[in-house]
Fold this sequence. Notes:
It contains 14 helices and 27 strands. By secondary structure, the chain is of the alpha+beta class. The chain has three domains: 237 residues, tricorn interacting facor f3 domain (Immunoglobulin-like, Sandwich), CATH 2.60.40; 241 residues, Orthogonal Bundle (Neutral Protease, domain 2); 63 residues, Sandwich (Immunoglobulin-like).
Amino acid sequence: MRGRIGTAWLAAAVLAVPAAAQEAEVPAPRPGEPPISAQTQRSGGVRPAEQAGLRLKHADLALELFPDAHRIAGVATLRLTSERPVSRLLIDLDTNLPVSAVSIDGRPLAAGSWSNAEGQLSIPLRRPLASGREVTARIAYAGTPHVAVRAPWDDGIVWARTPSGAPWVGTTSEGFGCDLYWPCLDFPRGEAEAVDLHITVPEGLKAPANGALQGVETLADGRTTWHWRSRSPNPYSLALNVAPYAEIGAEYHSRFGNSFPIRFWHLPEHAAQARRLFDAEFAPTIDFFETVVGPYPWSDEKLGVVETPYLGMEHQTINAYGNGYRATPHGFDDLFQHELAHEWFGNQVTAANWDDYWIHEGYAAYMQPLYGRWREGDARYAVMMDELRRGIANRAPIVSGEVRTEEEVYREETGGPGGDIYSKAAWVLHTLRHTIGDDAFWEATRRLVYGRPDPQPGNFAPRFGSTEDYVAIVNQVTGTDYGWFFDVYLRQAELPELISERRGDRLLLKWRAPANLPFPLPVEVQIDDRIERLAMTGGSGSIAVPEGAHVVIDPHAKLLRHSPALERLRQQRQAGGQ
C-alpha cells in the first residue's frame, strides 16, 4: 500500500533491533564504525548490466530512529522497472543493516533466498522481469549505521547532542552513497521518480526531510511519524535530520509570479542567530538565483534548510547547514549560498556520470563570485575569483571520459581532479562567459539546467546532464564549435600557456596548449588607455605597439592560463610542507 506501511512489516523491522537496544542508552560507535565494505564505499561507477538497467519509479521508506541506542529500523517498498530482462534484483544496502524479510509483489520470500554479499543485496525473482515491466520489492532491515568520521567529507550518520543534551542526528552520503541507510540504486540514474518518507522519532523530537510535509502522526507513547513526499531526489540527497528543532517560516513571492514556502529548522538555543540568517540570506539569495538562472525548481514542495551537527550538504529541499552562523569577508553566508546553488546545479540538473561532477560543483562555486558581484560589484567579484584561482591544482583533468565513482573524482589520492571541480571549473566558466558573452552564457546555462531557454514554473522537469551535452548546448547557442575550448580546459590537466614576445613595434602572442591541441582563444591587450581584442586565429596573433607604450595582457583577468607566479608559490609551499 502507498503512503502508509503495513504494521506487520514495521514490526518485523523493529523486532530486528533488540528490545534492550530500543530502550537503553548505549555508548555511541566511534567515527568510522561499524566498518563498511569496499562495495558500500562505491557510489556510481561501472555497474553490473542487470542493475544498471533498473529504474526506480517510487520508493516508500518507513524509518524509525533510536538515538539512544544509535540504531535504525526500516522498511523500504521499491517499485522498479528494468530496461532489459533480469532474473534478480541487485539493490545496494550496507551489510551493517541486516535484512529480516523480503517480499516480491506482495509474496514473502523464504529466509535465506536472498543474499547480501559485501553490500549488494541480491533478490531472486520467481519469473524473469521483462523489459518495461514493473516489480515491487519490500525489504525490512535494521542495525547500526556506519558513523561518519568527518562529515560531510566522510559519510555516514552523526549521533550528536544539542547544547541542552537532547539527541541531534544527521546523515550525509554523497561520497559513499545512499546504501548507508536505505536499500537503493547507488548510482546517479538510480534516482527515484518519487519518494515517500515516514520517519518515526522519540517524543519531543522533529524530523524535517525532503519534499512536502504530508502530515505528522502522534503515536500513543508520544513518538511522532513525519510523512514527507518528494519527487526525483538524488539517491544521496535523501536525508535524516532529528532534533528538538524550532522552525522559522515564511511564504516567498517569486519574480515568476508563484509563491512557495521557505523554512529553517534550527536548534532552539540558536534562535537569534537563526533569525538573522533567515532574514538576511534566504530571500535575497533566492532572488539572485531566480534572476540569473531561472525559477526555483522545487516550488511545489518547499525551500528548506536544517541546522546539522556537521558543516553542510545539498539535500534536495532540506539543505544541511552547520556553518555556525559565521561572518565572512564577502558579506554573505557562503555555505548557505553554495548549498542553495545545488538546487539548480546538482538537483534540477544532475550529472548522469560522476565524471561530470564539475557540473554540480563548478557552477555552484562560480555562483559565489557572481553573487558577490550582484551584491557589491566588480571589485568583490575580482577578489573572489582570485581566491578561487589560487586553489587550482591542475593534477588531473576535470573530465576523464570514463564512468567513475564519486570518490574517484572527488579525491586527488585516487587520481581524481579533487578540488579542481570547484575552483578550476569555476574559472573555466568565467573564461567561457567572457569568451561567448553574457547572453549566450546564460542561455546555455538555462538550457543545461532546464532543458529549454525559457523556463517558467511548471514547464520543465528534473533532468540529467553531461559534459557532452553542455558542449553541444554551447555550440548550438553560439553557432560556433567550441569543442577545442573544452578539450583543453576540461580534458587536460595542464593549463594553456600564453607566450608573448616584443619584436620592434609589434607584440606577438601565441598559445601553447597541452598535447599541442588547437586553442584559438581570443586575448585582450591593453595598450596605454585602449583595449583591443586579438582573435588568435590558429592560436596566435600580433598587434602594433608604439615604442614606450604600456602594455597589459588580459588586463581584466578574463582568461584561465598558466601563471608562473602561482606555480612558483605552489612549489614553495610544497617544499615547505605547507
